[in-house]
Amino acid sequence: PASVLTNVNRHLLGMNAYGLFVTLIYGLLDCRARTFTYVRAGHELPLLFSKDGRETRLESGAGQALGILDEVRLDEQTIAIPPGGSLLLFTDGAPDMLDPLGKPFGHDRLRRVARQRRGGTAQEFCQQVWRDVSAFQGGASQADDIALVAICARG
């Protein structure tokens, strides 16, 4: 994964006349081994939960955004998803969502919601987290996009 993002960075630098950048996470899922090898370029760290709801805090490397520097430092990790465990990937729009008073949803609340909503299918997991984030928004305008991707291991 790191070599792919290094090439993406090179291409972005060649076509980036406006100083734009991109953050992302790119990974490879090995279903048989229940591992997820990913590389982070300035993106949010995923959330990993065991079947009983314990969160495994993932290590954070440099993970610089793409399209800015010639030599980009990336955060590459391989994690094991335990049987019955859940992995949630999300964009910064979820913790940055504001309620009508301007209070952010926040990373801690996202962790609590994800812990409570894990289980079931990956689709159900994402839909339930989205409902909680959307309810928190309470009609306030949305300033950023939100994407949620879940991986739920059978166990």
Explain what you see.
It is a single chain. Strand 1 and strand 2 (35-41) form a beta hairpin. The strands form 2 sheets. This protein has a 4-stranded antiparallel β-sheet with strand order 4-3-6-7, with helices on one face. A 3-stranded antiparallel β-sheet has the order 1-2-5, with no helix packed on it. The longest helix has 16 residues, at 122-137. Helix content is 26%, strand content 23%. The protein is flat and about 45 Å long. It is of the alpha+beta class and 155 residues long. The protein starts with a helix and ends with a strand. The relative contact order is 0.18.
Tag the structure with descriptive keywords.
155 residues, alpha+beta, 4-stranded antiparallel sheet, 3-stranded antiparallel sheet, 3 helices, 23% strand
Overall form: flat
| Mean pLDDT score | 94
Low-confidence stretches: none
**Cα end-to-end separation:** 27 Å
The gyration radius over C-alpha positions equals 17 Å
Structural class per helix/strand content?
alpha+beta
* Helix segment tally: 3
Let me know the number of strands.
Answer: 7
Helicity range? 25-40%
Percent of sequence in beta strands: 15-25%
State the major sheet. 4 strands, antiparallel
Order of helix and strand elements from N to C terminus: HEEEEEEHHE
